[in-house]
Please model this.
Amino acid sequence: MESPYRVNFETLVGEALFAVPGAERIFDRHGCDATIECTEHHHAEYTLGDTELVCHIDDIEALVDDLNAALEADDDARAAAQA
Model:
């Protein structure tokens, strides 16, 4: 069985915004309004690891953890719906 999709420090910001349910709110909670403060160019160029310097996010590990928690919750909801 294939492992579920998860983000990491190398994941592009745009990929996270597209793939993670509620990612915009998660970025906002970490101090970055990624849909206003970042351009599409930024979304395609910067990784989550870059957000510490580019977006002034203090704890990128917590950001990645929160994004992955949202993915896990979505996976669980899908599994429950199929059961």
Remarks:
- The chain has one domain: 13-82.
- The helical segments are 13-19, 23-29, 40-45, 51-54, 60-82.
- The chain has a mean pLDDT of 92.
- The two ends are 18 Å apart (CA to CA).
